[in-house]
Amino acid sequence: MTAEPRAPGVSQTDVVVEGIRQLIIDGRLQPGDRLPVEKDLAAALGVSRNPLREGVRALSMMGVLETRRGDGTYVTTLDPSMLLAPIGFVVDLQDGSGTTHLHSVRRMLETEAAAAAAQRIGVAELDAATELLRHNEAELAHSEPNHETVIENDIAFHRIIAEAAGNPVLAALIDALGGRTMRDRLRRSITQPGADDTAHREHLSILAALTAHDPDRARTRMSAHLFTVEDYLLEQSVVNEAL
Fold it and tell me: pTM value?
């Protein structure tokens, strides 16, 4: 490995991050590989040891590297769910003005995930999804249902569909949006009468399309379901602007 000339204004830490990234892209570092010892890697990248450690720490936070005490630093499995997890952190930092945009992205992703899942979903996944909806039906029969339990089952139902689509990157992106959307769904669940019952009926409709392995109906019903959430958010934004 030889160090590339550093562009003006680029920090040594950035050089480390970019250098290790390029080593992985070029195939010189594979998932599970151990990084060269600190002295050799610093020399190869043309940086001192402190920036090297900062760069390694940054890549560890991104899920690209993991440091094992007493054993060195390794490239992770580079699993999409791990690499895309930081998106959830970014999403959580968004203020209320970006909520409808986040839900629009979620809708676009989940409608296609539902269509793909309808073609691939197996008996075990359908049974698990059915059981979640049974739990919600029992919870909603209570005079004061636990809204958090209902929403947690809701998220688990959507996660089954995302994973059944067979695309780990798509599933990871959908999961990364879960933090923000869970808070919005919980708010709607508590403040909008009948919201939980409506969502439950929509979930049953989605499940029926998945069971029939009908991608067009699964896509359409998932889209209609998620539009009800977006409509609520748009109404809330209008109310908030009027205050």
Answer: 0.73
